[in-house]
Amino acid sequence: MAYDYQKKYFCPRLLDYVMIVGSRNPNRNNSMAQTPELLRRYPLEDHKDFPLPPDVVFFCQPEGCISVGPKRMSLRECASFVFTLTEKDSGRTRYGICINFYRPFDRRLVFGSDRVKYERHASVASTSSGEQSGLQLPLQDGRPRSPRTMRKQKTAGRLRNNTLTSLCIISHHPFFSTFRECLLVLRKLIDACSDRSCSQRIGGSKANAKDSVWSVLSGQIIEGCPNLVMHEVREIETWILRLLSAPVAVPGKTRVEVTLLPREIYHPLVFAMPDHTRFSLVDFPLHLPLELLGVDTCLKVLTCIMLEHKIVLQSRDYNALSMSVMAFVAMLYPLEYMFPVIPLLPTCMSSAEQLLLVPTPFIIGIPTSFLMYKKGFRLPDDVWLADLDSNKIQAPTHSEEVPELPEPEGTVLKNHLKQDSSWVVNFQSRILNQDKEDFFRCAWKELVFSSPTARSQD
Fold this sequence. Notes:
Low-confidence stretches: 1-7, 109-140, 200-207, 439-458
Number of strands: 15
Largest sheet: 6 strands, antiparallel
Oligomer: single chain
Helix content: 25-40%
Radius of gyration: 27 Å
Mean pLDDT: 78
Shape: globular
Order of helices and strands: HEEHEEEHEEHEHHHEEHHEHEEHEEHH
Strand content: 15-25%
Structural class: alpha+beta
Distance between the termini: 27 Å
């Protein structure tokens, strides 16, 4: 049935939308999360066959837009994950590939009368040179302040915090790894353009954070921006629009090579789709549930899915959560799951918990914080809860025992899965300890599945 659907509808666009999500005015209270905002979107107009849903921002930042202090710089590295958007009427699924990272911004702390007093003292110090010789320092408790003290206070007045920012691609096609590369390159381009346009880097006056490329893209500055910064913004937007204009490959016949940067410094990305008569594209680790839950628990969850129970998976890791939900659905092949599947249900989305009350079977992934923040809500008595972090499954109160797999087939299947899981873990540990050349040699000899975008077909 999935093949018939794919033959009926095939989106000719490689990408549908590129978005920047975050907060235009980051919160001064780091302990409170803000509602995510759509800061920038490309293209500006909706596609006729797929308008951009307004609630997509909640999927990009499932627990809200968070600001952190300057001391938590371990959060610099970005985190990537995948979510899906399913159209209720047509059943079409679109995929969101998102990277989240903390972007620094300057937060001024000198306001109101204190700022006026500071400026008045500075003015007195710079103009009074008639009665006394030398520099007249501003007074503090009747005593002059030294230049060192003034520098410390000026630095303290500009506190460098970090706000959660998301770059996201929406597409009909599940090229998760290659789209993630596109987003990582885009982030590096924006950072590089922001540094290049900074007045401090070009020998001018000291840089101002509000004049950066990120400030323009995040909507914090609208007018009065330096021409150099606007030039960099236009270059980035041109790059994004060129990426959006890329066509999609014909399944089983052609491939598309996308050159993000000059070939001398970055390899082209290859996009190709398998033929409809073959396996569908699986660009994620299919073994992940086996690794996180173990073979026995994983098979128990899979049995519950096949018996049409309601399944909720939870984890602190968005990527592991969404990938595990999609992996369980893919494991059902050649069967097809006909009920709702939500790999990642955002915590910050209003009334999201109502989706867990539907009478039909489902597979839904939720962050660990979901049930804690939905005060007064309890999971229905017919929902199975599997925790990917603790490797535990919680059965409903009055549920029947899940039947064991028939023997001897069940034991044979478990032994094969345990052997395959251990092989994958050993292979991953080996490639992490090898250099790049040894990795490609090992991958070419031992990897039994080929990359979905590495080959072309005539």
